[in-house]
């Protein structure tokens, strides 16, 4: 597959953003390539298109599969595994949010709850215990809100986001 200048720019930028989000650059570039291609691609085709080692592609695809962002697809007449991702931005957003929650937020909530249930909490300064409690309450509220938003259909979510933006501007007293 030959990349157009725009596709190349998008893929390179997605790789840069991936590294800022804590994702390996190649993992993010492979995801971007599959997203733009909109069709299943074999690992060797991905390696050739991005000029990266086949072993790196294999490792990256496994990581993307663990995030449920990439799935295996088969094509008639070709015994190789092909890989594809959703081209639906909202579906990808949901998968990423769910994955980050499972890997980051849920374990943090577990630790915060354990801290608050610990008999040793009485040995902590009251201010520290209060900060732990407030952090837990904040994360619980945030995850409850995120769960509700992710249950919405994309068109409903877009309307909710638009209403939220208008409310925010109204509260701030801005007209833009």
From TrEMBL:
Q: For this UniProt record, give its keywords in alphabetical order, as a comma-separated list.
A: DNA-binding, Transcription, Transcription regulation
What GO molecular function annotations does the UniProt record carry, in alphabetical order?
Answer: DNA binding; DNA-binding transcription factor activity
Query: Does Transcription regulation count among this protein's keywords?
Result: yes
Which Gene3D superfamilies does the record cross-reference, listed alphabetically? Winged helix-like DNA-binding domain superfamily/Winged helix DNA-binding domain
Q: Where is the HTH marR-type domain?
A: 22-80
Entry-linked InterPro entries: HTH-GbsR_regulator, HTH_MarR-typ, MJ1563, WH-like_DNA-bd_sf, WH_DNA-bd_sf
Question: PANTHER family attached here?
Answer: HTH-TYPE TRANSCRIPTIONAL REGULATOR MJ1563-RELATED (PTHR38465)
- Family label: Belongs to the GbsR family.
Name assigned to this protein: HTH-type transcriptional regulator
Its organism's taxonomic lineage begins at: Bacteria, Pseudomonadati, Pseudomonadota, Betaproteobacteria, Burkholderiales
């Amino acid at each position: 597959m030959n990349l157009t200048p725009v596709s190349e720019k998008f893929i390179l930028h997605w790789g840069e953003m991936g590294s800022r989000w804590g994702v390996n650059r190649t993992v993010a570039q492979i995801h971007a390539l599959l997203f733009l291609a909109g069709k299943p691609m074999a690992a060797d085709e991905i390696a050739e298109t991005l000029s990266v080692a086949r072993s790196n592609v294999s490792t990256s695809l496994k990581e993307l599969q663990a995030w449920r962002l990439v799935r295996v697809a088969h094509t008639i007449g070709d015994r190789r595994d092909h890989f594809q991702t959703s081209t639906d931005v909202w579906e990808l957003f949901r998968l990423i949010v769910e994955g980050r929650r499972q890997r980051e937020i849920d374990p943090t909530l577990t630790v915060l709850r354990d801290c608050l249930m610990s008999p040793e909490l009485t040995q902590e300064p009251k201010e520290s215990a209060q900060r732990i409690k407030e952090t837990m309450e904040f994360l619980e509220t945030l995850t409850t809100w995120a769960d509700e938003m992710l249950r919405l259909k994309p068109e409903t979510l877009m309307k909710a986001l638009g209403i939220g933006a208008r409310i925010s501007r109204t509260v701030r007293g801005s007209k833009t």
